[in-house]
Amino acid sequence: MNPEGRVAFTRAIIHLLDSWGVNAADQVSLLALPAGTRPGAIRQFRQSTPFPEGAGVMERIEHLIGIADALRTSYPHNAHMGSIWMNKVNHRFDNRTPLVAMLEDGLGGIIAVRTHLDCAYDWNISGSSSQPK
Question: pTM of the predicted model, to two decimals?
Fold first, then answer.
């Protein structure tokens, strides 16, 4: 991806997290940005700085995009329902909101939210997609 594309991609992810009501400090945590990244860095990401390249950050972003896609599929007629769902207590996440589950449980929480929303992803990682020999 060229530098301009990386900046646009970064802005889109920050916009997604903003739409879910994730504050700057929690964005740093949710994305597992490098140690020492301050919440103020989110302002730079909104403007012209791309995310640092790293497998951990990109893995989390991939799952966050999967969650956003699943929410759009679940609520195709109301774009705001994704934010509402992310911030509503859910028994599946020990009576926490999906957002809190992701923040408290890290990558495992992010994957748990994605598998709850995206049955195709859940089916794929469960090994159900493999054919018997």
Answer: 0.88
Shortest CA distance to 67 belongs to which of 101, 113, 26? 113
Give me 34's structure tokens: 């490098």
CA 11 to chain centre: 14
Q: Which of 69, 67, 78 is nearest to 113 (CA)?
A: 67
Q: Would you say residue 69 lies in a domain?
A: yes
Q: Is residue 131 part of a domain?
A: no
- Cβ pair 42, 24 in contact under 8 A: yes
Structure tokens belonging to residue 63: 């799952």
The answer as to whether 85 is a domain residue is yes
Mean of per-residue pLDDT scores for the chain: 92
